[in-house]
Design a protein that fits this description.
Distance between the termini: 32 Å
CATH superfamily of the largest domain: P-loop containing nucleotide triphosphate hydrolases
Helix content: 25-40%
Number of strands: 10
CATH architecture of the largest domain: 3-Layer(aba) Sandwich
Oligomer: single chain
């Protein structure tokens, strides 16, 4: 579904992502982990088009999209949720999601079509907001929501776009203990569909262990481990680079 080949970006003399090659198949959830500054979010930005690659390629369904800007990548099926929420702050909760539904349905400025389809778009938006437990806040402005609800609203907008590839960057960051299960259950439901590819940047290792089919580890911009979760977490390179554990001499894991 999604592939990067030797994907690289340089900022002056610093190589933030260094020739990372990965394939991500439909029906799988891949966790991308690593210490702070490892290049995880930068890798996401290269895939989704927020940053231009210095070298390498990005392919979606076999089509090279490396030169496409972020909006066109979204049109082709790359959906991205950010560490910092990206909302329309002065619009209502329902309007934020309704606009995402409208964008997916290619509802532009044709006034007659907008008028005829608006009721359907609103109904779909409300149904999605019920799933993320924001059904009682339809008329609240996005800016007035607490942080946890803003994160849920961004996930709702991503669901409304219904992309081929879901990219979640720290989806539970800053959320209360009550809000975290809502988002994780939504990700589980998306994974259960088995026709979507999910990429997840996450620091909480209990979440990574539970949700991921595969773990990719970045360190200093390089791919240092890739495989089944238990094996990757137990590997010496991950113990040292990600968890800060230096293997004892003679440790053969």
């Amino acid at each position: 579904m999604l592939e990067t080949r030797d994907l690289t970006i340089r900022f002056g003399g610093h190589v933030a992502v260094d020739r990372v090659s990965c394939r991500f198949e439909a029906g799988t959830l891949t966790a991308i982990v690593g210490p702070n500054g490892a290049g995880k979010t930068t890798y996401f930005n290269l895939i989704s088009g927020q940053l231009p690659a210095s070298a390498g390629t990005v392919l979606l369904d076999g089509e090279e999209i490396t030169a496409l800007p972020a909006p066109l990548r979204a049109r082709k099926g790359l959906g991205r949720a950010f560490q910092l929420t990206q909302l329309f702050p002065h619009l209502s909760v329902q309007e934020n999601v309704r606009l995402a539904v409208q964008a997916r349905c290619h509802g532009g400025l044709e006034l007659l079509r907008v008028w005829l389809d608006r009721k359907q778009w609103i109904a779909e938006a409300v149904a999605i907001l019920e799933q993320v437990q924001l059904g009682d806040k339809l008329d609240s402005t996005a800016a007035a929501l607490p942080h946890g609800d803003q994160r849920k609203l961004e996930v709702a907008m991503l669901m409304a776009l219904d992309p081929k590839v879901y990219m979640f960057d720290e989806p539970t960051a800053g959320m209360s203990g009550d809000d975290v299960p809502v988002v994780l259950n939504l990700i589980r439901a998306l994974k259960a569909r088995a026709d979507r590819t999910i990429l997840l940047v996450e620091h909480k290792m209990d979440v990574v262990r539970e949700l991921s089919d595969r773990i990719v580890v970045l360190n200093n911009g390089k791919l240092v481990a890739d495989g089944e979760p238990a094996a990757v977490i137990a590997s010496p390179v991950v113990q040292q680079a990600y968890l800060g554990i230096v293997p004892e001499e003679g440790d053969e894991r």
